[in-house]
């Protein structure tokens, strides 16, 4: 008869467990990184939108610029999106209210407000106003969906915002005392809640509507709302002045800032949620600075490098997830 092992001996022979992090596979690593690549590309494109929107402020009024960009976007989307929407009339009708809300918030009101604000304020103030967007997204996600921000995310947001302050003040923080806020700043500031609601409502879109189909539906809804205001603006206030530069600007904003960038943004929000996607908007001033250096011939200073590095670190801290740990037996 085999001898039974005493309990103490069995305990000694039992494997001991400890948690060790398992390195992600290359495919898993890319899958985790993919949404942030989309969101980063979106920020690069949108930084050009802010610069050009300011450049044509005297020639192309805000509603006309908004209508033109989304008309171009609709033309780009139509051949890709219409086949995807066939047979989905019942879904579109059931979610018509949601699509209309997204069209009003993200396509109509927000864009018109931003271009209106850029007529009255400078780039530094506009960037500061836009940098509060993540805070509004967090607050609205908490109010509507009960989402909570983690200490790590909050710290990352503060660090990235500090990097923005370094850039816009040129490393001289006393310049904050000399910033003057006007009606344009207030318009852009109060447009940010609309963007927050747009981002949070995106998660309510049914999975049966893919990114292209959704964007086209939202695009058309927004155009329908903008059209009457655009007609009133042209007839009673100001008609656009179409120079070659202005046409090129509208073409860029329509194809890149509306068609491509919104595809990247909507898909990124769908994959990582409004909270994490919102933190990437702090990349806007960093990319705007780089574009000014490359295309406008502005000099790159040490405070640019420091500020951009701080922004990137803050965004990384707020959006990166810790690696998963698993328990393994060790002898």
Describe the 3D structure.
Strands 1-2 form a two-stranded antiparallel sheet. It has 331 residues and is mainly alpha-helical. The chain has a domain at 35-150 and 182-270. Helices cover 72% and strands 4% of the residues. The longest helix has 30 residues, at 26-55.
- Give the overall silhouette: globular
The unreliable regions are 17-22, 322-331
Q: So how many helices?
A: 14
Query: How many β strands by DSSP?
Result: 2
The H/E string reads HEHHHHHHHHHHHHHE
Briefly, what is this?
72% of the residues lie in helices and 4% in strands. By secondary structure, it is mainly alpha-helical.
Task: Fill in the keyword field for this structure.
disordered C terminus; about 325 residues; mainly alpha; 14 helices; single chain; two-stranded antiparallel ribbon; about 70% helix
Helix and strand arrangement:
Blueprint: H1 7-13, E1 16-21, H2 26-55, H3 62-85, H4 89-94, H5 96-117, H6 123-130, H7 133-145, H8 151-168, H9 183-201, H10 211-236, H11 244-272, H12 274-279, H13 283-295, H14 302-319, E2 325-330
Helix pairs in contact: 2-11, 2-13, 3-5, 3-10, 3-11, 5-9, 5-10, 6-9, 7-9, 8-13, 8-14, 13-14
